[in-house]
DNA sequence: CGCTTAATTGAAATGGTTCAATGCCTGTGG
DNA sequence: CCACAGGCATTGAACCATTTCAATTAAGCG
């Protein structure tokens, strides 16, 4: 499982707080374990389209994505749902680290997912001892808040086209920042379905289809077979209003 | 200015982190000042409808509302704007305490406002020394994130009526929790204009008028002269879907 | 291979915006 | 204390972005 020669178990480990802090057992194996590895944890995996956790399951544990795409969403009375955020490899699902959520949210595996689960009480304890770890968790929390700021403005004040364009551009940005995709790539793996895009932008999947097929006709981008082709990134940025 | 006999300078002080932690000079006057009062600060006030800060002004300072209503909003290309949150008395405007925001937001005085400004570097320093203060700031941050969760779901998946009803109910809830209004009051001071409500719910002020006048016709609530009358709270909750 | 889930397309319905006109508050200066 | 100006609220009519409904095809999945 671990690769001691390269020093990284997975591509995203470089960007994972648990790995950087040497809390993760993928790094501090066997004999090192008693140093910082004292944080209880386990590796798990789950198939695409399965629910990983309900809100209440997260009282005791803190998960980190090792591989695959994850969403956190809220069910709405009447069958609808809204995706609050996407989690990419190396990211902590730490919303409930300090307090419970007001909404009953679900963490779901979009693709097949590998993840690591840490014991919440131990993580908290460690965090308050180690300033570095605290800073890191805070940074992740603030980063998420900034994404929320942007999402709120988009939902409240921008058209469907703008919202879809921005969602895609931001995800591509995050993938490239984590070196999950080459930074010059114009073709990349993109596992979201139309209903994911709709649920993340406050649109219907039907309308997402219409927006995307317009983009395709204008040779801006093409999305199909879990693959995104950025045919004209400049035009996409223009649509996004950037 | 201070009232040493009651122990509180203002009604909201009881709920203000700076006051609770005895950082605020409204509490640690004169001789006490060297204990925890070492945090540089100053009291200020500003007239309604004025901009208190731009994003970049908050690099050095951390404001806390003592009195009045405050909003943080983002300007949108094309003249629109979106309100991200409202700040009530006793609340820290601490979004930028750890990192800069990605959007250029404005903090604006809705009513006449009194507030206190702390030096950011000193606050941060103190926060990392004192676990209690850290917990308190984190709690505020998480509370704000929970509000964001709810707002995102509302914007993405609920109608205008629901959004307006929820905004009002949540604000009333917060006012009562802080004892800024009596918990059994059905008439309370509510300084938001239609355009504030629109900018906070992603609607036009014109449409807010229509929604509110429908509520009035149905004897659910009446809003006018800076005063909110909750004529039928149960019905309002029903509209909100609660 | 058959079954379920997802994408696509068009037509009709709708919720909210935009535009425009009118009147009302509120604060300000004379 | 009154007059005036600018911001704010209200209303109706026309418009348009997005949803809803429905029917068909295509794509994953066991």
Largest sheet data of chain A: 4 strands, antiparallel
Shape annotation of chain A:
globular
Helix content of chain A: 25-40%
| End-to-end distance of chain A | 42 Å
Tally of DSSP helical segments of chain A: 7
Oligomer: homodimer
Q: Could you list the spans of chain A in which at least 5 consecutive residues all have pLDDT below 50?
A: 1-5
**How much of the residues of chain A is beta strand, in percent?**
15-25%
How large, in whole angstroms, is the Cα Rg of chain A?
Answer: 19 Å
- What is the arithmetic mean of pLDDT of chain A? 90
- Record field, number of beta strands of chain A: 10
Features:
homodimer; 242 residues; alpha+beta; 4-stranded antiparallel beta sheet; 3-stranded antiparallel beta sheet; 7 helices; globular; DNA-binding
Describe the structure.
The model of chain A is unreliable at 1-5 (pLDDT under 50). Chain A contains 7 helices and 10 strands. In chain A, the strands form 3 sheets. Chain A has a 4-stranded antiparallel β-sheet with strand order 2-6-4-5. A 3-stranded antiparallel β-sheet of chain A has the order 1-7-3. In chain A, strands 8-10-9 form a 3-stranded antiparallel β-sheet. In chain A, helix 4 (160-177) crosses helix 5 (194-201) and helix 4 (160-177) packs across helix 7 (233-240). Chain A is an alpha+beta fold. The structure holds a DNA duplex (30 and 30 nucleotides).
